[in-house]
């Protein structure tokens, strides 16, 4: 916080949405997504993407290519997960072809795209690995870095430092932000998946909730329905003592949007914030975050969410 007690916020593009995160939290090393191409059905394998959130060099890329080859060879056994082929497509794209079993393959591309490290993975069957690998090349070529300072609307789905241009049959992204003070925030944006039949408030407070099943003594700070960026939403704010032999409060705050008709303008957005999480060194905080401080942090994030129509910014590099 600054001397006025206000939080310094940074805007990130997540999916086709923007959100602001306090500067005390840093993005995880990468953001991951799953994409189904236009015209595909539920039987068509989806493409898994993992994209770095900070800028990397050619040396970093080459190191990752060597590391990934070593990892894949260590996973080999006599007749499964056999690394069959390594293809250097360009100086910036390398594809690994792994025979899972019989005629089933996994093709994985490691690429350097405008300063971002990209991993793209796709399953194939009936020896159709050539087609799968062309799909990987095509989707990598649709990844672009967009300068958020221009204020232009993003032309696609944001993931890490990049934007995946175009429209998709399905699209989902996962993002995480971690603080040295034990605060952990996750964001999931899923454009077209319908909401669950049981809403958030019913899941966390009903007789079948984990809190009820395990008889967790907890305190509810706030539970409400409201609007986020013009979309109906529910939130649940509570804390509980979860660590043995400790009086440290673990806050668990959750938000979930509700929309009868999924669309790019109204995606399923799920935000979760937890306090008292282990730091990078595995050590837990020795004091609880005050409730009012946790709520202020949460509210600063939730109120910043904007729809795809509000010119989101791309996640900056570190």
Verbal overview:
The protein has 318 residues and is α+β, with helices and mostly antiparallel strands. Helices cover 16% and strands 42% of the residues. Strands 3, 4, 5, 6, 7, 8, 9, 13, 14, 15, 16, 17 and 18 form a 13-stranded antiparallel sheet that branches. The protein has a three-stranded antiparallel sheet with strand order 10-12-11. It has a two-stranded antiparallel ribbon with strand order 1-2. β13 and β14 form a beta hairpin. It starts with 8 loop residues before the first strand and ends in a 16-residue tail after the last helix.
In short:
The chain is of the alpha+beta class.
Global structural class: alpha+beta
C-alpha termini separation: 20 Å
3D shape: globular
The overall pLDDT average reads: 89
Secondary-structure element pattern, one letter each? EEEEEHEEEEHEEEEEHHEEEEH
Q: Give me the Rg, rounded.
A: 21 Å
- How big a fraction of the residues is strand? 35-45%
Low-confidence stretches: 309-313
Helix percentage range: 10-25%
Q: Tell me about the largest β-sheet.
A: 13 strands, antiparallel
Q: What is the overall number of helices?
A: 5
How many beta-strand runs?
18
SSE inventory with pairings:
Blueprint: E1 9-14, E2 17-22, E3 25-27, E4 30-37, E5 47-52, H1 58-74, E6 82-90, E7 93-101, E8 104-113, E9 116-124, H2 129-141, E10 143-144, E11 156-159, E12 162-165, E13 168-179, E14 184-190, H3 200-205, H4 210-213, E15 218-228, E16 231-241, E17 249-258, E18 268-274, H5 291-302
Antiparallel strand pairs: 1-2, 3-13, 4-5, 4-13, 5-9, 6-7, 7-8, 8-9, 10-12, 11-12, 13-14, 14-18, 15-16, 16-17, 17-18
